[in-house]
Amino acid sequence: MHFVYVVLGKRLSRKVYLNTTEEVALHPDAMIRVEALAMISRESPIDIAVFTGGKTAGDDLPSEAESMLFHYLGFPHGPVTPRCICERSARNTRENAIGVKCALKDVQYLTVHVITNRYHMNRVQKIFKSAGLNVVVLSAEDVIANIDPSRKEEMLRYKRSLPVRMEQCKEWIIEHLPVRIAKRFRLCF
User: Fold this and answer.
1) Which end of the chain is more exposed for a tag (fewer CB within 10 A), N or C?
2) 3-class SS shares of the chain: helix, strand, coil, % to 5
3) Structural domain containing residue 113
């Protein structure tokens, strides 16, 4: 049986400097998710790491999955680097779950550990379970704070930040509005 961890993507953004140079930036939520995976890999064995997320910043740029993998490879790992899989087509959480299930169809595993942010955990649990995956959802902020207690305050500040609070509101709306209304306002991601 394999130890499988999944890192969910979050939108990429383009940064243009003086209309001449351009760079792609990972969303801070995605960076924290990747860092949590790197910290876990130093503490315990990971056989397979799945990075999931499609192209959100344009066809000429890498996918969320590829960008997260590149970011992950910049961190120190445990004694063995896991086999890394990039699922490059998902544009939302439901497609993440389907893509992960397809990517793991030939892999023997008991549980898929999904790393996301605290505000996203309930929806991830429901969606991955409905896709037929046995899943344990981990909060990236809690993983980092538990492995490195000196960063507990930093993670608390992050969880209380305005962008994270806005994501919490979006999650609440998605959970409580009828689907047809949420889709009308493009809230079902």
Assistant:
1) N
2) 50, 20, 30
3) 2-159
